[in-house]
Design goal:
Length: 120
């Protein structure tokens, strides 16, 4: 997934905001909380870091091209980084990013979730 596709995908999710920070990374938030960070370095290729469930963290960290997200996982957070091939297919990557959005959004207060239109 290239940078334009990534940003378009994240922008289409409800209640998201985008900033560029941390050395030029695309940072997407829901309700002010980060749910995915992506870097698009020409030398290293794209890197995507996203929050996952405890079970997904245990499974994904063992897969080629995936690892516990630097900085975040070292602080006890269940974040995975897709950093190399084979990693995840674009379809699977999008599914995990969408799930990260859901996980982070569900951690917001019910009041905030209602304000953002995240509750049915």
């Amino acid at each position: 997934m290239n940078q334009a596709e990534f940003n378009a995908f994240c922008q289409a999710m409800p209640a998201t905001s985008h900033v560029v920070q941390w050395g030029g990374s695309d940072v997407w938030k829901v309700g002010g909380k980060v749910f995915v960070v992506a870097g698009f370095d020409a030398d290293e290729g794209p890197r995507f870091s996203f929050k996952v469930s405890d079970l997904s963290f245990e499974i994904l960290q063992e897969q080629p091209g995936l690892r516990p997200a630097p900085y975040l996982a070292s602080r006890g957070m269940t974040w995975i980084q897709h950093y190399a091939e084979p990693g995840l297919s674009d379809e699977d990557l999008k599914a995990y990013i969408a799930e990260s959005h859901r996980i982070v959004g569900s951690g917001l207060s019910k009041k905030k979730q209602r304000e953002l239109g995240l509750l049915d």
